[in-house]
Amino acid sequence: MTSENGFKPEHVREIALNFPEVKRLMIERAQIKQDAKNSPTHTKLTPHPKPKGDIHHSKIHKEKDNAKTARRRQFDDKLEESSKEIETAFHDNFEKADLKQMSQWAKEMDSEELVTFMEEGYDKVLENRGEKTKDQIQDITLEDLKMDEDKSKEIFGDLEIEQEIDSLEEKEIHHNQDIEQSIQMDEEESAKLFDRQTTIDDFKDNVKDLETDKKPSPADDFE
């Protein structure tokens, strides 16, 4: 790969690594990374007898996590400071060497990209940019979908809410229908009961009449 100015990124990187100040800062950065890898992942606490069911164990883990987070933040701060120092030394040394064109070309990269360029080469920079572009496109697509969803709700309303409302209305309709059916059934049963009672009453009256007719009449004695 060759830049528009006719020099290769690999050549620029090789020159930069030969500047004593840049080389020293790169070595220091590598040491910071190594220290981060070798750093213990937990704090060493004094052993103590722990009875069964003691909740002190969870407290120890919380202290370890807090210490680990603090160390990680400390290393991140050191790496960020290192990136800025390398960026400054890089451009200062190229300008002092009267290689401003190379310095100007490298200014298209921020401090993090410049360090990636120095550590892994320009292809890695382009690879990372490609990944960032994919992520940005995905974020834009998701944002567009969110905007379309919001716009749709403005025009048509919230379909999920409407669906829930319809569901509640249907439940109310079914509930009312069940009540009406129950009332109707109660009325029908009541009517049948009254009909049965009337029939029984009529039957009792008829029986009384029959019993009365069967009693001997006083006139029968004179026959």
Topology overview:
Elements (H helix, E strand, L loop, with lengths): L8 H9 L2 H19 L17 H41 L3 H7 L4 H10 L1 H35 L2 H56 L9
Helix pairs in contact: 2-3, 3-4, 3-5, 5-6
Summarize the structure.
The protein is mainly alpha-helical and 223 residues long. Helices cover 79% and strands 0% of the residues.
Q: SSE string, helix = H, strand = E?
A: HHHHHHH
- Number-wise, the strands total 0
Question: How would you state the average pLDDT, rounded?
Answer: 76
Instruction: State the share of residues found in helices, binned by percent.
Output: over 70%
Overall geometry comes to elongated
Gyration radius, rounded = 47 Å
Output the structural class.
mainly alpha
Any overview of this molecule?
The protein is mainly α. The protein is about 80% helix and about 0% strand. It contains seven helices and no strands. It has helices spanning about 10-15, 20-40, 55-95, 100-105, 110-120, 120-155, 160-215. Helix 2 (about 20-40) runs antiparallel to helix 3, helix 3 crosses helix 5 (about 110-120) and helix 5 packs across helix 6. The termini are far apart.
Short descriptors:
223 residues; 79% helix
